[in-house]
Write a structure and sequence with these properties.
It is a single chain. Strand 7 and strand 8 form a beta hairpin. Helix content is 35%, strand content 26%. The protein has a domain of 219 residues: Rossmann fold, CATH 3.40.50. Helix 8 crosses helix 10 and helix 12 packs antiparallel against helix 13. The strands form three sheets. Strands 2, 3, 4, 5, 10, 14, 15 and 16 form an eight-stranded mixed sheet that branches. It starts with 5 loop residues before the first strand and ends in a 5-residue tail after the last strand. It has 13 helices and 16 strands. The protein is an alpha/beta fold and 345 residues long.
């Protein structure tokens, strides 16, 4: 079994992104009532409208492109594009970086139905990031789906790393001596108690570096669940943050329903900022979703919509604001980060 075992990050990559068996690659609903989870764009157009208002204020004449990584069903793309257009900003290209064939089809069908033929022509799809982007690269709830390594402190205070192998009894996990990169990271943390388990976002740095390398001028906007390092590796969070979601239910075993359930882990915000800084990206904003949206026009966008809405619709938008900003909902659990490329003036 040991010889066949692979690192948990490799297994998580398989479980989520294998071309035939991966969760995101299968032709099954992922978002909304018929899926497994809900994101802010699925709750309300106010999320995308407010992001677009912010981007319109930042927009520079030489910018011509918006790149969205992992666009779900395409709702955020629609909301941002239409609101930017209302602000007299019409990107030459709105590129969606999507590796899921199922979601790509969903996006194309949805956007073609909602947009004019001329506007739809501005959209294109790629399975990798484009180079020399002048404009904005954005990703909503993408970082928390990046594969992670899992580690544990054993009874001798040694650092172990989780590996996974396929046996006659299904997927089996085992703890083996950790690789040097995992050991180095864990030793950089405050001393952890025996039995402590958590994750290390081993693939996050390369992902951020790749985005930074693709951006020539402009901004990177990221929205995701996460914690600052002192919170992430607090002694009371001794089982980490890895979670699975199946039909809107929280599941605790990633090795069940493989390919049928989503697997996520919170983002280490400290690692995110360290990596971005090392790439030469400059932090422009770092706020909880609630504070970011309220500071950049959420209520103004709601007022515009509600002006022509009936009482029932106004109540619905009021509920949307609550869901997007309430601390126990999404308001303080998600954070929005904006990084500026140094070439941007």
């Amino acid at each position: 079994m040991t010889k066949q075992a692979i690192r948990f990050s490799e297994w998580m990559q398989y479980a989520l992104y294998d071309p035939t068996q991966g969760y995101y690659m299968r032709h099954t609903p992922k978002l909304g009532a018929g899926g497994d989870f809900v994101t802010a764009p699925e709750i309300s157009c106010l999320f995308g409208y407010t992001l677009a208002r912010y981007l319109a204020q930042q927009w520079q004449p030489e910018w011509n492109t918006v790149v969205e990584i992992g666009a779900g069903r395409g709702r955020l793309a629609l909301d941002i594009f239409l609101r930017l257009k209302a602000f007299n900003i019409l990107p030459d290209r709105y590129i969606i970086n999507e590796i899921s064939p199922y979601l790509l089809q969903e996006q194309q069908k949805f956007l073609q139905q909602q947009l004019s033929a001329d506007d739809f022509q501005r959209f294109s799809w790629m399975n990798d990031l484009p180079h020399h982007v002048n404009g904005v690269i954005l990703a909503n709830e993408v970082l928390d789906a990046l594969p992670v390594e899992r580690f544990k402190i054993d009874d001798n205070s040694d650092i172990l790393q989780q590996y996974v192998a396929n046996s006659s009894q299904g997927w089996q996990a085992q703890w083996l001596p950790a690789e040097s990169s995992v050991i180095e990271f864990v030793r950089s943390l405050p001393t952890l108690a025996v039995g402590y388990e958590s994750e290390y976002a081993a693939t996050l740095p390369d992902f951020i570096k790749k985005m930074g390398g693709c951006l020539e001028k402009g901004l990177i906007l990221l929205c995701d669940y996460g914690l600052w390092r002192e919170q992430y590796y607090h002694r009371d969070r001794h089982r980490g943050t890895l979670r699975c979601f199946y039909q809107h239910q929280l599941m605790d075993n990633p090795f069940q329903r493989v390919g049928e359930q989503d697997i996520t882990a919170h983002v280490d915000f400290t690692l995110l900022l360290e990596t971005a800084s090392a790439c030469g990206l400059q932090l422009q904003e770092a706020e909880s979703q609630a504070r970011f949206l309220m500071a950049h026009g959420l209520l103004e966008e709601a007022a515009i919509i509600c002006e022509a809405a009936n009482t029932t619709e106004q109540l619905r938008y009021s509920q949307h604001i609550q869901q997007l900003t309430a601390p126990h909902e999404m308001g303080e659990l998600l954070w929005i980060f904006v990084f500026e490329h140094p070439s941007h003036e």
